[in-house]
């Protein structure tokens, strides 16, 4: 009887460990946007509502958002978001994130926001738009499109 209990306990622990490992792996996965990809979804929404350490999204995003045209009506694809330590693309480049075919950008790569970074968005046409204030988090759609204008580039 003791042997059966020990085996049952071992099986329960093994299954529990497997389930815990699987749920944690999901949020440790690499998930980075790339030009022309159309795998992203929920354009214009705060990506970090799902893509955070304990969230249900694939990977915990460090920075994410959606890019639009200057009228805020059409999503702009295949641009580039860069994060610098100085205003107007000066200082040290901290991250480069490609905007996908749906207009979304996202990355699970580690980004140091501690001292603040200044985003720069370059459209596929070469047009550049600078954010003139620094940010200390990468939840771009939590403000843009809610309390400030959507992220845009020509």
Structure write-up:
With 154 residues, the protein is an alpha+beta fold. It folds into 2 domains: 29 residues; 122 residues, no CATH class. Helices cover 18% and strands 23% of the residues. The chain is built from 1 helix and 7 strands, in the order αβββββββ. It has a 4-stranded antiparallel β-sheet, with no helix packed on it. Strand 5 and strand 6 form a beta hairpin. The longest helix is centred in the first third of the chain and has 27 residues. The chain starts with a helix and ends with a strand.
Briefly say what this structure is.
With 154 residues, the protein is of the alpha+beta class.
User: How many whole angstroms does the radius of gyration measure?
Assistant: 20 Å
- N/C terminus separation: 73 Å
The total count of helices amounts to 1
Taking all residues together, what is the mean pLDDT? 87
What are the low-pLDDT stretches, counting only 5+ consecutive residues below 50?
A: 16-25
How many domains, as an integer?
2
Strand order of the largest sheet: 3-2-5-6
Helix content: 10-25%
Q: β content, as a range?
A: 15-25%
The secondary-structure class comes to alpha+beta
What is the 3D shape? globular
N-to-C SSE string, H for helix and E for strand: HEEEEEEE
The count of strands amounts to: 7
- Major sheet description: 4 strands, antiparallel
Topology readout:
Layout: H1 2-28, E1 63-68, E2 80-86, E3 90-98, E4 104-107, E5 118-122, E6 128-130, E7 151-152
Parallel strand pairs: 1-7
Antiparallel strand pairs: 1-4, 2-3, 2-5, 5-6
């Amino acid at each position: 009887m003791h042997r059966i209990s020990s085996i049952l306990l071992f099986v329960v622990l093994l299954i529990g460990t497997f389930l815990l490992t699987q749920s944690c792996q999901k949020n440790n996965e690499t998930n980075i946007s790339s030009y022309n990809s159309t795998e992203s979804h929920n354009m214009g929404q705060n990506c970090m509502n799902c893509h955070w350490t304990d969230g249900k999204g694939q990977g915990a995003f460090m920075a994410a958002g959606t890019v639009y045209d200057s009228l805020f009506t059409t999503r702009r694809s295949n641009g580039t978001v860069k994060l610098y330590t100085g205003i107007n693309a000066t200082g040290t480049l901290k991250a480069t994130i490609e905007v996908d075919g749906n207009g979304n950008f996202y990355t699970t790569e580690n980004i140091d926001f501690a001292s603040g970074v200044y985003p720069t968005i370059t459209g596929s046409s070469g047009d550049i738009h600078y954010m003139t204030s620094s940010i200390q988090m990468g939840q771009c759609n939590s403000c843009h499109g809610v309390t400030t204008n959507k992220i845009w580039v020509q």
